[in-house]
Amino acid sequence: MIRINLLPHRAEKRKRRRTQFYVLSALMVVLGGLIGFLVHSIYTGYIEHQDARNAFLKSEIAKLDQQTAEIRRLREQIEALLARKQVIEDLQSTRAESVHLLNELARGTPDGVYLKSVKQAGGRITLVGYAQSNARVSHLMRSLEESPFLERPSLVEAKAATVDDRRISEFTLSIGIERPKAEADASEPQGSGSKAKGARK
């Protein structure tokens, strides 16, 4: 009877399988490493690209912030210049008011009336003075009402006072200024404007 020893054949087959397993394991490890390196490289590229975009956006935002600050500074300068221009225009439009006012007060103040103070707040004038009687105050109000430069005189207060041992009437008047008509009235004689207004009444 012939006996065949299969142990070397089985050992050789087992050895080949073990070698194939090691080779396949090594190949899987290498392949896994390559895939990991490739994925890492791709994500690193994405991150670097995004970082570059973020840096670009930050630089552009910084430029926009500088431009915004410059625009804000220029806007403030423009507003300041416009405010100065408005002040100059207001001064030019009202530069003759004091002259007209004093002229009208001198023309319309009757005898027996003395003005103590004249104050202006916007388009209103406040007169404080003394009069020999209330009739003189009424006369003053009528004279001021006839002025083409002044309008709506109103008596704020009238009370008895004593000055130099004489009993007189102390009064406070409020008068408006007709600013839109100031330039037209400045070109017309004062007497003609007063007469025309008196004629209309």
Automatic annotation (TrEMBL):
Which lineage is the organism of this entry classified under, starting from the top rank?
Bacteria, Pseudomonadati, Pseudomonadota, Betaproteobacteria, Rhodocyclales
PANTHER family in the record: DNA UTILIZATION PROTEIN HOFN, TYPE IV PILUS INNER MEMBRANE COMPONENT PILN
Protein name as it appears in the record: Fimbrial protein
**A single Pfam family, by name?**
PilN
> Transmembrane as a keyword?
yes
Residue spans making up a coiled coil are: 47-91
* Transmembrane regions listed in the UniProt entry: 21-43
Sorted alphabetically, the keyword list is: Coiled coil, Membrane, Transmembrane, Transmembrane helix
One Gene Ontology biological process: type IV pilus-dependent motility
Q: Where is this region: Disordered?
A: 179-201
The family database entries (InterPro entries) matched by this protein are listed as:
Extracell_DNA_Util/SecSys_Comp (IPR052534), PilN (IPR007813)
